[in-house]
Amino acid sequence: MKSLTIALNTFREAIRDRILYSLLVFALAMIGGSVILSKISVGGEAKIIKDLGLAAIGLVGMLIAVFIGVGLVHKEIERRTLYTIITKPIRRADFVLGKFLGLALTLAVNVAVMGAALLLLASAMEARLTWELLLPVTLIFIKLMVVTAIAVLFSTFSTPTLSAIFTLALVVVGSLAEDLKLFAATFGGPVLQTVVVALYLVLPNLASLDVGSAVVHGRPVPAAAAGLAAGYGFAYVAAILAGAVWIFQYRDFQ
Predict the structure, then answer these.
(1) Which residues are CB-neighbours of 206 under 8 A, at least 6 positions away?
(2) Cβ(105)–Cβ(19) under 8 Å?
(3) Is the pLDDT of residue 110 over 80?
(4) Which residues span the domain enclosing 159?
(5) Which pLDDT score is estimated for 18?
(6) Cβ count within 10 A of residue 146
(7) How many Å apart are CA 70 and CA 86, to the nearest integer?
(8) Cα(204)–Cα(170) distance, rounded to whole angstroms?
(9) Three-state DSSP state, 191
(10) For residue 120, what are the contacts with CB-CB under 8 A and spacing of at least 6?
(11) Strands of 9-147, DSSP E
């Protein structure tokens, strides 16, 4: 219950942020602008709209997750409101989880708005309901939850600037995880392969949650594979949040 109260307060603070609305307008403009760009391609208009729309949702959601997430805890420290909170009967775990859930709710609303706009636009272009877009949009949201958890983890012990750098670095590596593993297996020696496999198992494999290209080009996405990717995302979020709670639990604010 206390986590939910903190989550709602975090959500209310986030939706009052002008940057949030600027990013949302930018994403909707990109989705709408894809109609103009689609005129360049003959016969592939719908694919371009879907591609650019999903890219816009992922990009804007990533910016929200990173640049708001890295300041969630640090902002409370700067305002000195955290010192008041932790002296009350509120567990530090509730505080961290509440902050995460508040930003996750903010992302859910934004992704829902952008996803609905893309669905309506793509459906209008193809003269049918493009329900297949719900899968990549859902997995994008799960990927954003992973990024949010990572941002919250770094925010529990680092400054917003360093937290943003660390989070973005993990996002880049996580997006290239499959390619790095393939490169090491093809060109690397035993030592490099061992190191890359170890990193592959520890770092977030964000590429596994990206099925937009397959859906847009009509390639089937097995339900088992989508379910496994979603399960991996939720498990990684749980593990990262556990680490964030543990770090925050033993941090000294005196």
Answers:
(1) 143, 146, 147, 171, 174, 175, 177
(2) no
(3) yes
(4) 2-250
(5) 64
(6) 24
(7) 20
(8) 7
(9) helix
(10) none
(11) none
> What is the distance between the alpha carbons of residues 103 and 145, in angstroms, rounded to a whole number?
9
> In whole angstroms, what is the distance from residue 33 CA to residue 42 CA?
17
What are 128-185's pLDDT values in tens digits?
Answer: 888 889 999 999 999 999 999 999 999 888 888 898 899 999 888 888 877 777 777 7
Residue 225 tokens, joined: 């594979």
Residue 67: which residues within 8 A CB-CB, separation 6 or more?
A: 19, 164
Taking the C-alpha atoms of residue 216 and residue 201, their distance in angstroms, rounded to an integer, is 29
Full-model pTM? 0.87
Residue type, 89: P
Q: Count how many domains the chain has.
A: 1
Retrieve residue 162's tokens: 């360093």
Lowest mean pLDDT among 7-11, 146-150, 206-210: 7-11
pLDDT in tens, 58-87: 888 898 888 888 887 777 767 666 666 666
8 A C-beta contact, residue 32 and residue 62? no
- Report how far residue 136's alpha carbon sits from residue 246's, in angstroms, rounded to the nearest whole number: 32
Higher per-residue confidence, 20 vs 116: 116
